[in-house]
Structure formats: C-alpha cells, structure tokens
Write a structure and sequence with these properties.
Layout: H1 4-18, H2 27-42, H3 54-65, H4 77-89, H5 92-114, H6 118-124, H7 128-134, H8 140-159, H9 164-181, H10 185-198, H11 200-203, H12 209-234, H13 252-262, H14 278-303, H15 311-331, H16 346-363, H17 368-384, H18 392-399, E1 411-413, E2 423-427, E3 432-436, H19 443-454, E4 459-461, E5 472-474
Parallel strand pairs: 1-4, 1-5
Antiparallel strand pairs: 2-3
Organism: Chryseobacterium geocarposphaerae
Protein name: Dolichyl-phosphate-mannose-protein mannosyltransferase
Keywords: Membrane, Transmembrane, Transmembrane helix
C-alpha cells in the first residue's frame, strides 16, 4: 500500500500532465479518464472509514439476508448487485469497490465507444457529485450509472430516425432500475412526466411523441409492480413504517436545507460544514451567492438550446433536475432523511451539469478555461478528501481477527460516541490553528463501520434498546490501535 505522501505525489504529477494545454485534442481527455478511474478506485483505501457509512451497513445487511430480505427500508437493487459480486470475492467491501469500478469504467468506456459526448462525460467526473458518489459505498453509484444510460436512450429517441420504440423501451428500463435502486427514482419519473406535459403541444405531431409516451407508461407500470411487490412481501410500499419522524417546525436546519437545495446547480463547490455556528452559516451564504452566479451563467447556455435539435432533451434534463430537487426537499417535511447535500442533490446536479457541458461545447470554440477549472477541482476534490487521511485496510486488518470472538452477536452498537477525536489544522503563515471534528474519523464510528462490513448479519442499532445485552456487540469491545 502506498503511503499518503506517495499518493499525493502521484496526484500532483497527474495534474501537471493533464493540465497542459499543449496536449492535443482528445488525448488529454483520454489521459484524464485513466487518472479518474485509478484515483476513484484507490482513494477510499486512504480514508479512515473506506467510504463506508451507516447506510452502507444497511445495504450490506440486506445483501447478506438475500434471498430472504427482512426490510424494505431501501430497495433491493443495490444489495442484489452487492450479493452477486460477493459470491465471487466473499467480501462486501471489495464487492462495493468492484461495482464502483464497473460503474465508472462502464460509463467512460461506453461514452468513448459510442462517441457519446466523451469530453463532456470525462468532465462530469471532475465535479463534486461523481467524486463523492463513487468513492463512497452508497446506492447513488448504480443510480447515477442507470441515469447516464437514461440520458443516452432519451438522446437517441430525439436524434435517430429509426428504432425509437426500442430506445424508449430501454429508457423505461433505466427508469425502473433507478427506482429499484433508490426510491427517489420516482421523482426522476415525475420530472420526466412534468417535462412531457410542458412540451406536449409542441411535440404531439412529432415522430418521437408516442415513443416518449410509451416510455412513461412502461416505466410507470414497472414502478407500480415493484411497489405492489413491496406491499405484498413487506407490508409497506417504501419502508415507511421504518422511517423516523421529520424534525418539526422552522429551524436553522430548514435554512441549511434551502441553501443545500440551491447548491444543486453548482458542479464543483459543495462544501457544507456540519456546524451551525455563525461563521459556518456565513460561509454557507457565500456559497449560496456563488450558486446563484453559476445558475445565471448556466441559464445563458440553456437559452441557446432553443436553436438546436436537442431543445426538448435539455428541457427534460432541466425540468427533471428541478422537480427531483424540490420533491426531495418537500419529502423531508414528511419523513426523516438527510439534509439537502451533495448526496441528496446528486441526480439534479448531474442533469444540469451534463446539459451545460453539451451546450458549452456546441457554442464555444475553446475549452481552455473549462479544462483548467475542471482539472483544478479534480485535484482539489482528491486532496480535500484526504484532509483527514487514514489507512482503511490497516484498520480493517486490526478489527478482522477480533470478530471471531463475537460470532454469537446479533446487534452492533456504537457506545463510544462520547469519545471525540478532534483534528487540529495549523496555518504557519498566519499563525492560526483550526480544530474540526470529522464524523467519519471517530473511533466508535470507525469500529462500527468496519465490524458491520466484515459481518453484515450483525444489525447496527441507532439506539441501545435491546433487552438482552449479551446479543449486542459494543464498539468498546473492539480494539483499534
């Protein structure tokens, strides 16, 4: 395993190579694509928790229960994929990394093979969203993967004269796969329906009207069938009985959610401190101002879409992005979900960013500044993610032999939340220091994530409510040097 310093050297040298504008044409995008695959795959090994969080443990747990799942809190799509790969490698963490590599390579390889906006697709991976999604173990990975192919099939419906119903069939299949991967996929379908209604009168005589209608009807049927399966097997549609109640009333978190919603337009900057202190909120408002500026800039290019053949394609992307983002925000008033952050706004951000990139290259003679900005943020995201570096495989190798002593445990609980680890950052030039609590670097959380990934049959607990404590594995029982 490379040391952190060696990894940073590689990143820096990579940046010097790919940022040179004298690299000709498509070659620089091919070089960048290779570095994207390598860095996306290996970076989690240099993060303390390896990209594993609480939701990851739930996905692992559902996968381990297959073919007899015990919960529909999350849909079965991602756990099924994890279980399939697990049968070959016998390790859920490794399964998640293999899947991530497949998704990344699949998107880039398909784009290059089909000549489907390869430059634009590579630049998508320099943004905040794909970087965050594909280094974490989360269902957004396959969700974005299916959405990218949804873009392709919708694009072909508008651009190709033949096989429109075939493309419509595959587009519907992608929408169904998105819903089976994340329940929020229904908001993508809702956005598609809203955009279809907006352009109804303008396309009702076009040769792609019926294929688009067929796509909506087929995908809607698939979603209803999966909801019916959930209801008959689990007794609920989307695991609504297992979700917590939302926070009530207007609060500072409402403001943070609104700011997070507006951040869906920003392709590169998505920093959101966990603190609700005054300096943190001021910082968030500065990001908000930047988001507004980006939205205005993007909209100038969006207006140029009226002059091209893909006008309705861009309308679908923009409308879907807005409907998805607002729908998620509204749903937070009725159920307990995460704050509006990079993860929650992932689909919306990719819709807008992809639309912008297509229009940018259609209307600009030079990619010099966009290329430089993309390379800069690609390196920034890589380095920022290592602001609190760790060695996941070392931590895992420490915990792994200890797990054999707890084979009879059925539950896992972090009883070390009071043991807080603070990271101090020193700035020698201004002689100031900054202290920050990294959530994923807390020892109790690290032990919980590693133990849960090693034995997903152990169900993690949010609260220590099990009466028989002998069935609970407490993180304090595990040693992490």
């Amino acid at each position: 395993m490379l040391a952190i310093a060696d990894f940073l050297k590689i990143v820096w040298i990579s940046f010097l190579i790919i940022a040179q504008n004298d690299v000709s044409g498509m070659l620089k995008y091919k070089i960048l694509a290779v570095f994207i695959v390598v860095i996306y795959f290996f970076q989690p090994f240099f993060i303390a928790n390896g990209g594993i969080g609480a939701d990851s443990l739930s996905y692992f747990g559902i996968a381990a229960d297959l073919p007899f799942p015990e919960t529909n809190l999350f849909p079965l799509g991602y756990p099924v994929l994890l279980r399939v790969v697990y049968e070959f490698c016998n390790d859920y963490f490794l399964s998640s990394r293999i899947l991530s590599l497949f998704f990344i390579g699949g998107i880039l390889g398909f784009s290059y093979w089909k000549k489907f906006y390869f430059r634009e697709t590579v630049l998508l991976f320099t943004g905040k969203t794909l970087f965050f999604v594909f280094i974490q173990t989360m269902s957004e990975g396959p969700f974005i993967f299916f959405m990218y192919f949804l873009f392709y099939f919708l694009h072909e419906i508008f651009m190709k004269e033949r096989y429109k119903y075939m493309y419509a069939f595959y587009a519907a299949l992608m929408l169904i796969c998105m819903f089976v991967t994340r329940y929020s996929g229904i908001y993508i379908l809702l956005g598609f329906i809203v955009s279809f209604g907006m352009i109804f009168n303008r396309i009702k005589n076009a040769n792609y009207f019926k294929p688009l209608l067929f796509c909506i009807l087929m995908s809607g049927f698939g979603v209803v069938m999966y909801l019916l399966f959930n209801y008959l097997y689990f007794g609920s549609m989307v695991g609504e009985n297992e979700r917590g109640l939302p926070s009530s009333g207007f609060s500072i978190y409402t403001i943070r959610n609104i700011l997070g919603l507006f951040n869906l337009v920003n392709p590169f900057v998505g920093l959101k401190p966990a603190s609700i202190s005054l300096p943190s909120m001021i910082f968030q408002f500065l990001i908000f101002i930047l988001d507004i500026a980006v939205a205005v800039y993007f909209f100038k290019y969006y207006k140029k879409a009226k002059e091209g053949k893909l006008n309705f394609f861009h309308i679908i992307l923009w409308t879907t992005a807005l409907v998805y983002g607002v729908s998620l925000w509204v749903s937070g008033w009725f159920q307990q979900i995460e704050e509006m952050n990079v993860r929650m706004m992932a689909a919306s951000n990719i819709c807008l960013f992809f639309s912008f990139l297509i229009l940018y290259f259609e209307n600009s003679d030079s990619d010099k500044w966009l290329w430089r900005i993309a390379c800069l943020f690609f390196v920034f995201h890589t380095l920022y993610n290592l602001k609190d570096p760790g060695n996941f495989l070392r931590n895992r190798n420490i915990i792994k032999p200890q797990m054999s002593k707890f084979t009879g445990k059925k539950y896992l609980y972090n009883d070390e939340e009071d043991l807080v680890t603070i990271t101090t950052y020193d700035f020698p030039v201004i002689h100031k220091s900054f202290k920050y609590k990294h959530t994923n670097s807390q020892k109790g959380s690290l032990k919980e994530n590693i133990a849960g990934s090693l034995n997903p049959k152990i169900k993690w607990l949010l609260n220590d409510t099990v009466q028989d404590k002998s069935k609970v594995l407490y993180t304090s029982q595990l040693k992490l040097k």
